[in-house]
Amino acid sequence: MSTDRRLFVCTNQKSGVGDDVAKALKKELKHQGLKKQEVKGQKVRTQVQTCDCLDLCRSCKKGPGAALIVYPEGTVYGNVRPTDAAELVAEHIGRGRVVKRLHLDQ
Q: Which CDD domains does this chain map to (predicted)?
């Protein structure tokens, strides 16, 4: 059985940081070999998708980073910068651990 995981990245910021975060996440998924993996006997494919608005600006405190949501888990991250991509991919996608310093409680 195959499962998809998606990282939805908000690109609604004027600075364009969301697009940069999405590119960095895609690069890291490929670099770390985690675009396709097996988790608990299931094949999991991870894709990065951009979207207009996640309605998280208030929670994200309008910082210089982007908001993103990981599905199907529903984990929400805020103020994510391109330099956070390697850690997010390694920890959340690779090890299944939430990156607490970027995590937003919803």
A: TRX_Fd_family
pLDDT digits (tens, 9 = 90+) for 34-89: 999 887 888 999 999 999 888 877 666 667 889 999 999 999 999 999 999 999 99
What lies within 8 Å, CB to CB, of 38 at 6+ separation is 44
Q: Is residue 72 included in any domain, yes or no?
A: yes
**105 in any annotated domain:** no
- Cβ atoms within 10 A of the Cβ of 14, count? 5
CATH number of the domain residue 40 falls in: 3.40.30.10
Q: What is the DSSP string of 13-38?
A: STT-HHHHHHHHHHHHHHHTT-SEEE
Q: Flag whether the pTM goes above 0.85.
A: yes
